[in-house]
Amino acid sequence: MNRRQFLSVSTAVAGSVAAGISVPGFAKDSGEKLKVLVLGGRDYFGPTLINALLQAGHSVTHFNRGFTNPELFQHLQWIRGDREVRDGSGLINLKQHLKQHNYDLVVDSWQKHPMFVPPIAKLLKGHIGQYHYVSSISAYKDKNTVHIDEDYPLVDLSDSTIEDRRHTYGRAKAWSETVLFEELGDKVTTFRSHGMRSDRTPNRIYEPYWPARFLEGGTIVLPKDDNHVMQVCDVKSMIAFMLHCQHKGLSGPFNVARDTMAFSDYVQEVEKVTQTPHQKVWVPKDFLAEQGVEPYRHLPLWRPQLAGFYHININKAKQAGLVNRSVVDMVTDQLAGYLRRNPKQDFMFGGVGTISRQKERQILNAWKNATIA
Ligand SMILES: NC(=O)c1ccc[n+]([C@@H]2O[C@H](COP(=O)([O-])OP(=O)(O)OC[C@H]3O[C@@H](n4cnc5c(N)ncnc54)[C@H](OP(=O)(O)O)[C@@H]3O)[C@@H](O)[C@H]2O)c1
């Protein structure tokens, strides 16, 4: 698939959103139309969520400060507010609004300090049907065990208080979930997401390394490691599942991810999407280590150090109705976003979790010399 084809896929999706036509991966079982309040909504996860909600015919109000991507969703009802003002004055507009409005569903993607979760939960109490919180598998105490399910212990909170000045990402998620369940009980559903994949990036330093690498073609270095598996979360599938949970009235925590799959199978799916001529060179992990290439630190979707990281148990969500789209659909979305942001395909890999093209050539030369010798 070339750049034009990718962009035509994403334009078709945008057009369908406007026309209210169903697109695979978005909620299909929406009978009733919901009033949804999105806390946040304009950065990484939120826009895909809001588009899915609109496409399914729901009405959306978003609450944020108006700093991040203010050009998005200007046609929707917007409540300006700031959750991080300690005296609560940043919630005044929301408080006023709730005098006249109730919501079927609140979706909250908060990932900052957990001390700002209870005030908004208290304010919303009595005004909402369900509260969906976007959590993370980082909320678990570790990833050293395979098949971590929803009963696995979260990060230990006993040696901290919610007001502590700093929390690790995982501890902040664990605190946020804990206080939400305390405050709102079975109105809360938490979605413990694996690494998210969509057509957006959480920030400009993360671009989809493997899809972009295969799109470029040429000679590609891959890690050769026994039992190399991977697991990620497809954002559109997760959102469809969130709406399904709302329709079915499901609460409590859910791990959300795709099934664990062999990395080599993932590569085959990426190849189906990109179709650029290339040659794969599987370089043994020990040789890569000699070249200074470490799993995860320098190549993504490779993390043998944490035995359970790519073996998160998603049975509960699947039994409840999680249906994952194909890898081809997920990668197609990722590449559409990559090409929108980098129309010349000139993103400089080599930053966080990736190797540069120069480093890749260096490894290839070294490997060639080692195998000829
Ligand atoms: N990246 C991954 O692979 C991954 C994996 C697992 C889970 N997750 C989770 O997925 C979620 C992604 O969230 P996102 O940031 O993309 O969500 P988002 O809802 O798209 O964006 C965050 C929103 O929060 C608003 N906001 C920030 N500070 C605020 C404040 N003080 N008061 C009110 N609103 C405020 C921002 O707008 P303003 O700045 O205009 O206020 C923005 O609209 C996070 O919870 C993350 O932990 C991510």
UniProtKB/TrEMBL annotation:
InterPro entries: NAD(P)-bd_dom_sf. This is NAD-dependent epimerase/dehydratase domain-containing protein. The lineage of its organism: Bacteria, Pseudomonadati, Pseudomonadota, Gammaproteobacteria, Alteromonadales.
